[in-house]
Amino acid sequence: MINKHKNTIVTPWYIFLDIDGVLITTPIWKPDVLHEDGYSDFRQDCVKNFNELVQQIDARIVVTSSRRHTKNRDELALIFQNREIYTPIEALLPIYTEANNRKEELTLFILQNRYEKYIIVDDDLSLHELEPTIKQNCIITTYSKGFDREALATAQLLISG
C-alpha cells in the first residue's frame, strides 16, 4: 500500500489471531453465549481493545483459531463484522498435517511467507516454546481475560518499536 501523503510504501501488519481465549473468554465449563446470528459472541471489551489496536496500523488478520476447521474465511469475516470487527481477514492459517500444535503451524507459516511485521495474539501455551525471533512478536493472553488492556498495551509497544 502506498501512503499518498508521504509517497512511501506502508507495509501492513499481519495479526495472527486466535479467537477462544482472545475474543471469547467464556469458561470451558459454560456454554458460549450466542450472538443473534447463532455463533458464539465475543467479549465486548476485548473487541474494543482489538479495534483500538487495528485503528493504529494497516492491519490484516490471519485467523489461527481451531474454529478455522469448521468455518471458511468468508463465514468468519461475516461473524467478525457482526461483532463490529471490520479489519479484513486476509487468510486462515493453513492446516499442516505435519504440525503437532499451533506453535509448529505458526512457525511453518511465518517462515514460508517471510512476514516483515506481524503480531501473534493467542492463548495457546505451546507458543511459549516459539523460537525467540518469532516469540518476540507474540502476545499470549490469559483465557479468562482475553485481549485485555494489558495485552493491548503490549501490542502497542510491539507496533511502535
UniProtKB/TrEMBL annotation:
It holds the Pfam family HAD_SAK_2. It comes from the Bacteria. This is HAD domain-containing protein. It comes from Xanthocytophaga agilis. The lineage of its organism: Bacteria, Pseudomonadati, Bacteroidota, Cytophagia, Cytophagales.
